[in-house]
Design brief:
Layout lengths: L13 H22 L13 H14 L2 H24 L4 H21 L6 H8 L10 H19 L2 H9 L4 H16 L6 H16 L3 H17 L11 H26 L10 H29 L3 H7 L3 H5 L1 H16 L12 H25 L4 H11 L8 H7 L2
Helix pairs in contact: 1-3, 1-15, 1-16, 2-16, 3-10, 3-12, 4-5, 4-9, 4-17, 5-10, 6-10, 6-12, 8-9, 11-12, 15-16
Amino acid sequence: MTALAPVAPRERLASLDVLRGFALCGVLIGNMVLYSGRWALHGEPHGGTLDEIAEWFVGIVVDSKAQTLLTFLFGFGFAIQLLRADARGEPVLPVYLRRLLALLVLGWLHVLVLWWGDVTWTYAVSGFGLLAFVHASNRTRVVLGLALTFVPFLVATIPEVQEASLRVFMEPREWGAHTQHYLEVMRQPSRSGLAWESATYALVWCSQIYVWYFLWTLGRFLLGYVAGARRWFERDGAEHLGVFRRFALWGGLIAVVLIAVRVLARLGILRFDTLGVAGRLLGGTLYQITLLAQTIAYVGIVVLLMQRPLWRRVLGVLAPAGRMPLTTYFSQSLAATFVFYGWGLGWVGEVGPAGCLGLALAIFSVQVAIAHVWLRFFRFGPLEWVWRAAVYWKLPAMRSRASIDVTNR
């Protein structure tokens, strides 16, 4: 009986690493509005045509799609752990619980040291819910996954529910005061007290979304769980190309139609707000369908392109960043907070959408280059190594076989 251990590099699926790298790039682009302080300034500054184009691009192509993709991949990873544990005759529960607890601790360290907006600790909290579906059928996982994706979110769009859920923790008017206070904290030249302020604001932010967010995340985990249980990504998806063709075709078609509806609504040509609560529910439903359709279209397109040697080499550039997702994600916060917070360059509130998009692409390009160099010598990213050490209760070998061979020549 073989003990559970980290996945060896030769066992990795390149398409998943590419998808993870693609998602991490999108996460950085989407998070720039939070890093930069623009969310607290109601979207300002907005400087002209380039900013307008960048804002539309991020809203249509990136916003929330990257997070949706990461949640799919998280659920997929859970299914793969179960399958490997079953093949080895090992109980997965102790390892999975340690995995979540370690992720929870790392997430809160991220909050305290770098940035309040960390999602890894929220993934850990939602991840415990997957344990209830270990013995469920895939049909049940799909049905409940979709129900959790839509129902809590839609209920939370009802104004009375929004206000009541917020009042559990604070008066609605206090939310704006907390946000403006944290904006001033971002401008401070010292890091003194930043950990406390970041932790406080992380909880304040969650007080706005707790009614739906954790269940919404679990719903997406379940949909990814089904993909893992069905082994759709084995041999980088080559054995299930029909599935990915349908993803690309139907996901793309549905996304294009609903994006057009969203654009018309944003331009004021379609008015959901005139329908009251029914309009909110309809708008929220269409938005969630768009996220799912667009995300599975991205998955289908990437997997199909990965079957072609040229595109495999091109997209493979992203794979090293996807192989060390924790390190990539946390280092994004280090770079972005240095740019915007007062303890660094202090550019908070001074960069518009186009500038944020350019900065995000520049930061991620550097991360990809560093990941390529790092993985020439080491098997894991630094934080991935820490996470594995905590999960498996032993120190994994860090040096890559290639670097050892070079050293011994």
